[in-house]
Amino acid sequence: MTAEGSPPRTPTLGDVAKVAGVSIATASKALNGRTEVKAETRERVKRAAERLSFSPNALAQGLLTGRSGTVGLLTSDLEGRFSIPILMGAEDAFGSGKTSVFLCDARGDSIREQHHVRALLSRRVDGLIVVGSSTNPRASLGPDLPVPVVYAYAPSDHPQDLSLISDNVGGGRLAVEHLIASGRTRIAHITGDIDYSAASDRALGVTGALEAAGLPLTGGRVMYGSWNEAWGRGAARQLIERSPEVDAIVCGSDQIARGVIDALHEQNLDVPSQIAVIGFDNWGILATNSRPQLTSVDPRLEQLGRLAAKRLSEAIEGTTKHGIETIPCRVVTRASTAPSN
User: Alpha-carbon distance 227 to 134, whole Å?
Assistant: First the structure.
């Protein structure tokens, strides 16, 4: 409060300019990072703004820069297991840069999706991140949008778009390399629906790593099925009956892995001393509540979201990229793949 009892006056851009010894126009340009202002002048203006606790008005900044400071995050599966961490990562990255986010769920409906796109554009968003519900390619929103677009998890089917995906082939390879390093040599692969690129890509990594190590795929073939525990249980029973020598199983998802472990326990086969099991997705609630806790390949979905935010910010600034960019997976080691004796 001032001596008269009135609240303190909010500092203005003019106050910042006066303290920094520059014009109001120069102060504005400096605070907006304009390159025509010398670096030392920008720093002097920044220090003056910090000293006065000056916060630029977002609307005024938008009028100066032609930007709204908002972006749209459009998903097709907001309740899905995979879209949520991507969206969290993107929101975290934007939040650190004081960018507001509008979140829309199209629920897999292309008409609803177009409605959301129009609504977001009417709000003058500076760009869009589109998160798919699976790893299969999805239809592009088209080349004529007035703002940049980044696709995450599900790549766009248009080569001029920028798509960010996890390296599922590399993840399958990492799983096998981890098992071999743990002393396993008779390795099988149980995975999900063959129509999903996640299944075929992970299988490609598994079989490629086995071939590179000079090892056959135990069971003779990749076992494709469903992305659930029931399939994991049934497939494991088939595998043990056909190839009782198996000493490790790479599973295409953590849900499949949980079913596999259940079936092995039913047949009095110990995990991991007799058979090691590794999952995929690093779904914490499944992996840590498994008995034993489940080693899993982590597709690093939050990192994928953060990278999507970074690439969109770069595109908004004028640096555009095209094609598909992958981020590497990692193995999160837990008890289900402890080294064999």
Answer: 12
Selected from 3.40.50.2300, 3.40.50.300, 3.40.50.1820, 3.90.1150.10, the CATH number assigned to the domain covering 168-298 reads: 3.40.50.2300
In terms of CATH architecture, what is 70-166+301-327? 3-Layer(aba) Sandwich (3.40)
Q: Is the pLDDT of residue 91 over 80?
A: yes
- 2 pLDDT band, cuts 50/70/90, is very low
Is residue 181 exposed (0-12), middle (13-18) or buried (19+ Cβ within 10 Å)? exposed
Q: Where in the chain is the domain with CATH 3.40.50.2300?
A: 70-166+301-327, 168-298
Percent of residues, the chain, with pLDDT higher than 90: 63
Tell me phi and psi for residue 111, to 5 degrees. -65, -45
Using the predicted structure, report yes or no on whether residue 223 has a pLDDT greater than 50: yes
> What phi and psi values does residue 135 have, to the nearest 5 degrees?
-85, -5
Tell me which CATH code domain 13-65 carries.
1.10.260.40
Quote the pLDDT of residue 265: 97
- What is the model's pLDDT at position 35? 66
Give the pairing type, strands 70-75 and 128-131.
parallel
Which two three-digit tokens encode residue 64?
């100066």
Bridge partners of 163? 151, 324
With a CB cutoff of 8 Å and minimum separation 6, the contacts of 176 are 187, 205, 206, 209, 210, 213, 250
Contact yes or no for 27/20 (Cβ under 8 A): yes
Q: Which residues make Cβ contacts (< 8 Å) with residue 122, sequence separation at least 6?
A: none
How far apart, in whole angstroms, are the C-alpha atoms of residue 35 and residue 250?
Answer: 53
| Rounded Cα–Cα distance for residues 191 and 175 (Å) | 13
Whether residue 61 has pLDDT greater than 70 = no
Question: Contact 256/230 with Cβ under 8 angstroms?
Answer: no
pLDDT above 80 for 3: no
With 70 as the cut, is the pLDDT of residue 228 above it?
yes
pLDDT tens readout for residues 15-32: 888 888 988 778 877 876
pLDDT value, residue 4:
52
